[in-house]
Amino acid sequence: MLEPVTVALHTLDRVAPLLPEPVPCAVIGGGPLGILMGVVLRHYGYIPHVFEPQESRRERGASLGLDMHPPAVLDIGGGPRLVVETSAAAAGVELADELATAGSVVAVVGRAPASIAPPSLLLKELSLLGIKGGPGQYPKAVELVAGGIVDPEAVITHKFAWSDVDEAFRLNAERPDLVGRAVLHGDW
Prior knowledge:
The protein is an alpha/beta fold. The chain is globular and about 55 Å long. Strands 3-2-1-4-5-6 form a 6-stranded parallel sheet, with helices on both faces. A two-stranded parallel sheet has the order 7-8. Helices cover 37% and strands 18% of the residues. The chain contains 7 helices and 8 strands, in the order αβαβαββαβαβαβαβ. It folds into 2 domains: 3-130, NAD(P)-binding Rossmann-like Domain (Rossmann fold, 3-Layer(aba) Sandwich), CATH 3.40.50; 153-188, no CATH class.
């Protein structure tokens, strides 16, 4: 459950040289990663706007105090922005491109089957960052969780005994609208 927190911290480390101060921020995708990304960004001074098509996920994020929106272009403030794409969906990449203003940094965390077109990169002078995991970030992630700043359990929607692992994977695959993060528990 710490992995999404480490990804958020790694994202901030990669973004810092390009945007040394918090700027308007959009997170595309309100799954567990997007929600915890929003919580971490908020802790570091950003005002994240999270864009998610599923109402249940928007409600989960809103319960944590995040500004949640259906996926649509929205004015979240002027100037360069930080846009973090976590949805791993072509529509999410398209929205990230539409929300990116001139000079914005777009951090791609999800593995979407699409990319931001070179003309957009050129004409808006975007900086595009690929974010893979959260190397070296676990100690800081543990501090954020231990200090009560981030509660990764907030995105857990289902708990299964190890003996029910098949059901856990089935539900996760068949009903992503219901499952935020499923965890297995019990005796090893």
